[in-house]
Amino acid sequence: MSVRTHSLMRKASRFAARHTLQRWLPLRRQRAVISFSFDDVALSACTTGAALLQEYQARATFFVCGGLENQLEQGQLCHHGAQLQQLHSDGHEIACHTYSHLNCELQPLSVLQADWDRNRQYLAELGIPASGFAFPFGAYDLGSKHAAAQRFSYSRITGGGMQQGRADLHALRAQALYAGKTTDEEISHLIAEAAAQGAWLIFYSHEVSDQPGPWGTTPAQLRFALQTARDAGCELLNIRDAIQAYQAFSA
What we know:
The chain is of the alpha/beta class. It has helices at residues 3-19, 43-55, 81-89, 109-125, 142-151, 184-197, 219-231, 239-250, and strands at residues 24-26, 33-40, 61-64, 72-73, 76-77, 93-96, 132-134, 154-156, 166-168, 175-176, 200-205, 235-236. It has one domain: Alpha-Beta Barrel (TIM Barrel).
């Protein structure tokens, strides 16, 4: 198979994944919901990030790679098990990334499934049940979307945007919260749009540091997003709790 043919097949698979295998959740509540999530999970997200969230009585979703425990990721020290247990006890959602931070679009399904099972086992040994999932790098195709749908109650992707009117639980859209890329003006605009439309906006980031890497946020930026959401009258819920709230409203 030529490189060009392989590339076209991958693009076709990604297109099919975006437009098929949807599991729609009606978003009938009028009040907008803002969710914050952290991928990988950096130590600073567990400490500085969680402390800021607590100030606003907010709870986030932490997508954990078990293999990164006490390791460096992009120069940032990652979580350890006791911190995840504390976050879980405090009402945050602990969910799955992949154990080895795999790109799900590039891996055989057998490798993905074994890695997912290893990650869930890692969390289970900490006494943490995990049913949610986020695709590392936001990368997925038709096969991995289908396989994730068989294992997880929802999957989060990237790519920006928000959920309006309904949400595909197998591909929840999320917006980057990166200090070097996301401006305060963009944050304000997104939250204002969500508030006006009664939409569901999910932010994602990695570390929370005064000197973050390219995929992290600062305490000041996170505080700005939290305060802006609160001032706009939005409800602050982690992804699991947001889904439950929408499901209860639609029952």
